[in-house]
UniProtKB/TrEMBL annotation:
The keyword Transport applies. Keywords: ATP-binding, Nucleotide-binding, Transport. InterPro entries: ABC_transporter-like_ATP-bd, P-loop_NTPase. Coiled coil: none annotated. One of its GO terms (molecular function) is ATP hydrolysis activity. This is ABC-2 type transport system ATP-binding protein. Belongs to the ABC transporter superfamily. Residues 2-83 form the ABC transporter domain. Signal peptide: none annotated. The keyword Transport applies.
Amino acid sequence: MPQQIVPVPGLTVLEQVTYASWVGGCSSAEAARRASEATGQVAMDELAGRPATQLSGGQLRRLGVAEALARPGQMVLLDEPTAGLDPKQRARFRTLISELTVPCLLSTHQVDDASDMYEHVIVLHQGTVAYQGEMVDFLRRGAGPRPAESAFLSTIGDSR
């Protein structure tokens, strides 16, 4: 899922998810089946017939996840999935991701979001792996009210 989800003018939510699946290599029939399933997984059944251009920011994020789920593959890749979302939308999005049945790989600067959602973490700093391991062990590196942020800063050598 890219950082920016671009609604396709003239397509409904379901049509856009179907199109993404078809572009990903599914037959028309398989794309339609996968799109219907994916929109249900992200709780967008009620929006399936709405023009994709009329979605809110949080709804566009859910559309992006539905597109990713509808494509063939063994994993979902998410790039900054909570960027630009308000706290309520971020909480709903974290719940959505935690309910997925496929493995997820996430790239984010929102380390507090990641601490609630994932079991494993890899921290990249200046092109190298600065930490790789269990999230629970990573969080032990931090302190205070924001342990994930503190652990990240500690890992990259920033003592702020």
